[in-house]
Amino acid sequence: MAWGTVESFFNLKGIGINSDRNRTNHLKPLYDTTLESNLRSEFNNSEYLKFFGVVHSECTNNNHIQEIGSYLANPSGNYELSYLISGVRHIFAHGILTPHSGKIKPKTTIEICEKLIGFFLPIIDLEFSKVVQNHPQYATI
């Protein structure tokens, strides 16, 4: 659902965030580079790699397959983080992944989702606040 919030926010701005180009041009510049680096470090562990191995094996979208594959090959590498959260959303939405799929510890699923949500929702919160504050009638509210 957190990824749906990101998508909806950008849709309101007339930007389809599902393309690589739009993610690179409109979402990635909003990343806090320190938080991004910390998140990449936290995601370099065996439980998370196992989790995303399951996500990768169930994805049907080529962008998800490529970016999650890049993460699996090199967790410290240059993969696009947003494909991790949108990949998780894709697998949940299509009913393949549940918090306890039998392959992954429920605690791991929850940790991963909370960390990705904690990274992406503050970005959207800040950007949405800017939109509200730039509204011509903001001062009268």
Terminus-to-terminus distance: 29 Å
Molecular shape: elongated
Secondary-structure-derived class: mainly alpha
Please state the CA-atom Rg, rounded to the nearest Å: 16 Å
Helix % is 55-70%
Number of domains: 1
What do the pLDDT scores average to? 86
Low-confidence region ranges: none
Beta-strand fraction estimate: under 5%
- H/E element sequence: HHHHHHH
Jot down its keywords:
mainly alpha; 67% helix; 141 residues
Can I get a quick summary?
This protein has 141 residues and is an all-alpha fold. It contains seven helices and no strands.
Describe this structure in words.
67% of the residues lie in helices and 0% in strands. With 141 residues, the protein is mainly alpha-helical. It has one domain (2-124). Helix 6 crosses helix 7. The radius of gyration is 16 Å and the shape is elongated.
